[in-house]
Amino acid sequence: MNQPVVGFAGMSHLGLVSAAAVAGAGFETVCFDTDPELIASLRQGALPIVEPDLAELIKANGARQRFASSASELGPCDVVYVALDVTTDSEGSSDTSALKALIDSIIPAMHDEAAFVLLSQVEPGFTSALSSPPQARRYYQVETLIFGRAVERATKPERYVVGCADPSRPLHPQLQKVLSAFNCPILPMRYESAELAKISINCYLVGAVSVANMLAELCESIGADWSEIVPALKLDRRIGQFAYLAPGLGIAGGNLERDLATVRRLAAANGADASLVKAWMRISRRRRDWAAKAIQRALLDRKPGATIAVWGLAYKENTHSIKNSASLATIAQLNGVEIRVHDPVVTADLIARQNLTGFDDPLRAAQGADALMILTPWPQYRQVAPLEIAQALSGKIVVDPYAVLDPAAAAKAGLAYYTLGRGTIATT
Predict the structure, then answer these.
(1) 3-state helix, strand, coil in the chain (%, to 5)
(2) CATH number among 3.40.50.80, 3.40.50.720, 3.20.20.60, 3.30.1330.60, domain 6-190
(3) What is the value of pTM for the model shown?
């Protein structure tokens, strides 16, 4: 069997990373998008997203990964992935209109033996409802994209979950060859099971995050320290060292919210009980407001017109996305204050707010401010010494929910330090 040629339609975050990983495994890869300007930029090496190691991987792929602005260039491909990011609204509802249009545009270009693989996340029932190609060549593959870790996840997958019309039959031989190159388990199942598998994984993730947030809040009230408890949980085989145990400012980014909204809709339509999901969403919204409440108590109750430095605008480190960002939600609650912001990749002009100024250096943003809030745990912020922060600030308050700074060093530097999962750390 000849080495398959693999096509990817939709050069979104998901499409770019997935195509680069397949090309990196040695396959000739054709990357198509309907936006000719995007394709022209990609040919020049200009990426529209921030993702560690992605630019280096694409450069190393060289001619194996080429970018195409015409769907006809997918014609020679033996496997064609549709990998467009599906947008969601503030309620977690998906808009699949662009995805459907993309599918309609590429089906005529595919040759009659090619495997069609839908990689975009969709609700159960979407794949089986497609009118073409025939189900024998139609698949749904669960995506594993995590912003900031996407290249690692795509090049070293834990497993492949593949939805198909008949999971008892062998996969399309060319698709099998692509997946086998990554040396991980392959789990065939019916379309609807695969579509729900992704949602199931995210629901378990939300459950873990919600438990961590709930118990971290309790720690703050009773004098316990969540960071001391986490090692005990990681050493319990029923939970494990890779469990999501770090508390945070609620659920953000869009994908988890979409899956929770999907479960609620499916439960309502089928008479199932989704009260657990509602509880998770309540915990998430409560913790999203933690930073704003902390700075209100620590500073704004006595100085309403304060100046506050904010480090981090992206919803998480190592990404440019601000979708449902806890940082932006916090900033929206800081009324009547001057805000000085820094983020390594998100520019301040994306934030529609008066009295907000962006800086290209975190310490410059902190200079003269009454307090600092570290709302995205970018790695470079860990390199800033607490003593430098204390010298830059005019006040001594630091709100650091993710414990980016070392708490003991912050206290030693004379900072009044607030973080999730423990009480206020006084200065020494």
Answers:
(1) 45, 15, 45
(2) 3.40.50.720
(3) 0.76
